[in-house]
């Protein structure tokens, strides 16, 4: 090493020492090396998921353009299929409702259900295409507009070819553009400053990246078992089912979306071929299951049980909650048992505090 370079390094070290002396709480003095697990979570889980979600909504938008130009049954079928694909892909980014997603309330903006169908149709009637309330936009609004405004394909097409056809198209286009913009905004943030700061905000204390990620992951899991299963089944309304509160009421594939959501959580947990939650949980030693299993073994088993129980719930879920209570309830119980493992055992083992509140008795 040359003497000039050595002197330069020593001067930099001295400057850093004096600049941080007595100021250890400043951001410049708390910088740390990137955490390899956080880097893998960002690079292999979060960023690719947002990229896929954005691409799928882009394909949905292209399909809608084709439908707008040639409003026929073939293009309507393609449009419905692209909606299903993009809505399913959305389930893979729902667990990341922290950081830039939390800043813009991404989940509420793009997947608040049930949709307020009366308000949507009224706004179209009044040619009000600016999107305000969360329950008048997002994927559930598109479900209404592509699947729910008629009892048959011909009836749906009639709305888009009739006197207010252009108004229906304008509203649907505004909804798609809004979803695309908001997912794109979060994707960009992960590729820029937030993605860089995420991997250096190390440790497990409240405010750290691990804390934000794990809290969002658990809270999103609770959304699956509560909003998608418990509420429509009637478990939160004195056993009075609310079939209209399923995620995809008009399209009739609510169970498929819920299953995709559960499977996405399992895939995030396993993080095949890279570091993730499973590697963290494998290091937890202060847990022993009823059969002597480790926490990781217990969680893997519970994930697979939840997938098994949810897989046998028939669609449309809006009908199943009325006709097969026990089948749906078994799926709910499997998902609920995972809440205990995540929210109590995993967080305790990792030293992470829960920093969100819920009101459903977990």
CATH top level of the largest domain?
Mainly Alpha
CATH architecture term of the largest domain: Up-down Bundle
> What characterizes the major β-sheet?
none
Q: Specify the CATH homologous superfamily of the largest domain.
A: M75 peptidase, HXXE motif
Average the pLDDT over all residues and give the rounded result.
Answer: 92
Strand content: under 5%
Uncertain runs: 1-30
Q: What's the number of extended β-strand segments?
A: 0
CATH topology of the largest domain: A middle domain of Talin 1
Count up the domains: 2
Gyration radius, rounded: 24 Å
Computed structural class: mainly alpha
H/E series, N to C? HHHHHHHHHHHHHHHH
- Estimated helix fraction: 55-70%
Topology:
Elements: H1 3-20, H2 36-69, H3 73-90, H4 100-103, H5 106-110, H6 117-125, H7 138-148, H8 153-161, H9 165-191, H10 193-198, H11 209-233, H12 254-270, H13 277-282, H14 295-311, H15 317-323, H16 325-350
